[in-house]
Every structure is written in C-alpha cells, then in structure tokens.
Amino acid sequence: MANLQTEFATLKAEGFYVGVQVRVRIRRLNDLLLGSHLNHNPADVESFRKESAELKEWLGNKKISLSTRSERDLFDQLETAYKRYLADAELLLRVGDPRTEQPTFAATYETIKQQSEPLLVLLVRFVEAQQASFDSFLQTSQETLSTLRHLLNLSLALLLAAGAALAVLVYRGMIAPLSRRLTESQTIIERQEKLAALGTLAAGVAHEIRNPLTAIKFRLFSFKKALPPQFAEHEDAVVISAEINRLDRIVKEFLQFARPAEPELAQVPAQRLLQEVGDLLTPELDKLGIVLNCESSEPVWIHADPLQIKQVLINLVQNAADSIGHNGVIRLRLKPKTERLNQRLQSVVLLQVVDTGKGIPPEAEKRLFDPFFSTKEEGTGLGLAIAARIVEKHGGLLRYQTALGQGTTFEIVLPKIDDHAT
C-alpha cells in the first residue's frame, strides 16, 4: 500500500497530455500561417515566428519527462517533422508579393494542410503511445488493489473466527483505516481514467472542430464585409458568427478542464475575495430581485490564486442565482475551523455560498461533478467540474449540502495560514 501511494503521489496527469497540447498549438500555428499568407499582415508573421520558437523550446524541455522508450523515439521523429514543418512554413511566408496575384484561400489552405499532415500523423501515434503507457499503469494499479482487497477480506474472516471481541478491536484499529485508504486510492484511479479519456476526447475535438471553424470564420468574415448592414442576410451572418463563437467557447472550456493552468499562489485575505465577488455580481443580481449579502468575519489568510478562486466563487454564485430564479437571498460567508483535510487535522477556512433556491434533486446529485452533465439548456456541464479541479490544485476540496425547497450551501475548504503577521 505504501509503494502504491508513492506511485500515485508522483503521478502527474498533465504529463500525459503532451501530445494533445502540441496538436492544439500546431493548429494555432496553421491559423497564423494561413492568415499571414492571405492578408500579408506583418503582425501575423511575427506572431507565427514567436509562437513557433516557443513551441520548439517547449518541446526540448518536455523530452526529459517522457517515461518509455517508444515515447522518446516518437518524440525524436516529432521534433524532426516539426523542423521540416517550420522550413516549409518559412518558404510559404516568403512566397509572393502583396501587389501580385495570390493563390486562392482553398489552395493556400490545402498547401498548409499537406505541410502539417505528417506532423499531425506523428502526433496521433504519440498520443496513442502515451495512452498505452497510462493504461498499463492503471492496469497494474488495479491488479495491486484487487490483491489487497482479497488479502483484507481474508484477514477479516480469520479475525472474526478468532473471536468477536478481538475482531471488533482489530477492525477499528487496522481494517477500517486501510479500507478507507483503499477507497481513496480507487477514487484516484477512477479520476485518472476520466482524465485520460477526456484528454483523448480533447484531442479529437481540437482536430475535428477547430480546423473547420477556422475556415468558416475566414469565409464568414469575407461574407459579412460584402453585405450592407441593412440586408437581412447581414443579420443572418451576425447570428452565425455568434454561434461559431459559442462553439469555440465550449471547446475552450473542456480543454481548460483537461489541462488546467497551475495556480499562482500568494498570501491573500479570504474576506477580500468574497467582497470583490460580491461587488462584481451585485448589480447583475439586483435586476433579478436577488439580494447578495457578504457577511463580515475576522481576518483570515490563505495561500491561493486570487483569480482562480474568484472564478470558482463566481460560478457558485451564478449557479445559486439560477436555482433561485427571482426574489431570493444569496449569502457569502467565511468560517475558520479545524477539521480533517488531506488526511490530517488542521486549521482550515470555509468559503461558503448559501442560497434560498430550490435545492438539488437526488437524481442530479449523483452526477453533479461529472463533466458535461448539466441541468441548464445552455450549460456545458463543465462549471462545477472545473471548479472542483481548481480547488483540488489548491490542496482543498469543494463540497455541498442541499435540501429540496430549502436551498443549497457550497463550501470551498482551503488550508488556513495560522502564522501570518498582519
């Protein structure tokens, strides 16, 4: 069990998304290359060269983190293919003069697609190799956990046979803590499986959606410029543009969930975070007849990324407002407390969002933090999933209490700084 916990502690799920991240950035370079070749915009050329250089340096830094020989071999091929891609791109950037006749959009798009195709094929193989390595790790962990489960069950049976009194003492002193740790380890495995599946999904979406969206955006831009504003077709183009932006937002949200940014931790007063969120959202909630109260508290300090924690609080307040609808109360509270967090008893801070809404139905509670599950027609189902991951990266947890017809309380539990000198 100790060895297994050590492996889990050293496991970094973000390391399995190198291929996914490279693919997304190659798509971005293709967009810049297409725009610079068609529009002859020096800013696009400069952006392409800057981002391509950053990606080259990033690839060099990531090579040492690869765990298997097959990944390293594929990574070498990937670097070689990337150098060829950059050489072809430089040729394309230098071809033609803005005053002479230039290739059509379709021809340029096809040229860039052919230049990047070998690199994208290698990226697919690289992602598959990373997935195979991760699956092997999960299979080994599952087998170890299964063996531990059988041993624990056998030990329990023998202890029960030795005597009821002795069995109760041993169960309370040894078996119960081990079972809890086993459950926590299984939860980690299930979460890593979801992350691996989502990484593959993110790669597929970036490949299948973002590339066509880029072409549609360029076509739509030209179409809108050709239509006078008074034409009905111009209004249709505006609606289409808004829907394209909505698709792009959905893609960005679950890519953010698949590979969230690391928090930039700083010592901040927790009350200030609640107050800033309250000041930001009060005007919007007043229009709905919802009162947002930020209750004062004694000064307490936490290690946190202010932007990320405020993002979580804003999401929770907006969810509370959706539950209320009109005419209700939302309270932002701060409570210092001592309780068990990260398997040890310590001082913590509870950032609470309390509403007087309808509460959460039992059928929705079972899937509340599942990615892509939402009870809203326009929701992506990623808000609470992203919020939970942000809080976990801060060493805390996100939990809730709810009752139908009485409201819901969400709590962000974070470690408290006890020795801060104000």
Q: Strands, helices and their partners?
A:
Layout: H1 2-10, H2 18-39, H3 42-62, H4 69-94, H5 105-162, H6 164-226, H7 232-258, E1 266-269, H8 270-286, E2 290-294, E3 301-304, H9 306-324, E4 328-341, E5 344-355, H10 362-365, H11 383-393, E6 397-403, E7 407-415
Parallel strand pairs: 2-4
Antiparallel strand pairs: 1-3, 4-5, 5-7, 6-7
Helix pairs in contact: 2-3, 2-5, 2-6, 3-4, 4-5, 5-6, 6-7, 7-11, 8-9, 9-11
- Rounded mean pLDDT is 79
Report how far apart the termini are. 42 Å
Biggest sheet, spatial arrangement of strands: 2-4-5-7-6
**Main sheet: strands, sense, barrel:** 5 strands, mixed
Structural class: alpha+beta
Helix content range: 55-70%
| Number of DSSP helical runs | 11
Radius of gyration: 27 Å
Helix-strand pattern: HHHHHHHEHEEHEEHHEE
- The number of domains is 2
Percentage of β-strand residues = 5-15%
Shape: globular
